[in-house]
């Protein structure tokens, strides 16, 4: 099925369920990243090491899996979207999240990145020459303003550097999702993310070795890194890219609206972070805007 075509009801339903599975896997990314890097007053693994190590470990798994499957090499026209996807999902998003979570709690990151579904949908609409309605764009702008208001209030009347990292993480993830999902319309989704990771090995593996930490870290931090490597960086995309293709990128991307709440809930037992009323209120407001935006019509631009 072409990435820009209208999915059938059956494919859309399958895409939504697969998207939910991917979101369940990704929801633990924020708590696990915070556990891996540690806070400013008790640092664990360096953010640059976590970024490179999770990608390198997943890349080695991907290379072995591709060899076992006998997967065909990417064609010439596939290298560019592979590189874009790698920049977004292998480098940009993990690095910016790791840098941000050294400074702010996982719950803060979950709320700020709550606009990721709208960012993905907006980028997909532009990329695939679709035309969202005015209502959609109003929801997208409103969601961004809510996120900035939350970050401003949480920062004590100002934005902190971590908020910039989180917004850059949103842009990176949206770019990687759309590019990867387009490739998933041509070859199996599990091959797409595996080739993205395997082709990144010449960069990520030396970087992980060079950034290897000198100071010891807690066993829980290494366990969190193992989760990020196996699930957040690799297996989660098996479900997510296939979901974006089956159900349509603009629609299925909105399944991520539940991800901030799952991340908020998981941060309580994993990190012991308190869930306060202000954080929950902002998260609910972002959710409401995303739900409205999900229902707003999106139509394709007529071909010339």
Beta-strand residue percentage: under 5%
What is the radius of gyration?
19 Å
Low-confidence stretches: none
**Rough shape?**
globular
Distance between the termini: 22 Å
Structural class: mainly alpha
The number of distinct helices, counting runs of at least 4 residues, comes to 14
What does it look like?
- This protein has helices at residues 9-26, 29-37, 47-69, 79-100, 106-112, 116-127, 134-154, 161-184, 189-199, 201-210, 219-247, 249-252, 259-271, 277-295, and strands at 130-132, 298-300.
- The longest helix has 29 residues, at 219-247.
- It has 304 residues and is mainly α.
- A two-stranded antiparallel sheet has the order 1-2.
- It is globular.
- Pfam families: EamA (PF00892).
Question: Which SSEs are present, and which pair or pack?
Answer:
Blueprint (H helix, E strand, L loop, with lengths): L8 H18 L2 H9 L9 H23 L9 H22 L5 H7 L3 H12 L2 E3 L1 H21 L6 H24 L4 H11 L1 H10 L8 H29 L1 H4 L6 H13 L5 H19 L2 E3 L4
Antiparallel strand pairs: 1-2
Helix pairs in contact: 1-11, 2-5, 2-11, 2-13, 3-4, 3-9, 3-10, 3-11, 4-8, 4-9, 5-13, 5-14, 6-8, 7-14, 8-9, 8-11, 9-11
Family: Belongs to the EamA transporter family.
Main location: membrane
Keywords: Membrane, Transmembrane, Transmembrane helix
List the main descriptive attributes of the protein structure presented here.
304 residues, mainly alpha, two-stranded antiparallel sheet, 2 strands, 2% strand, membrane, transmembrane helix
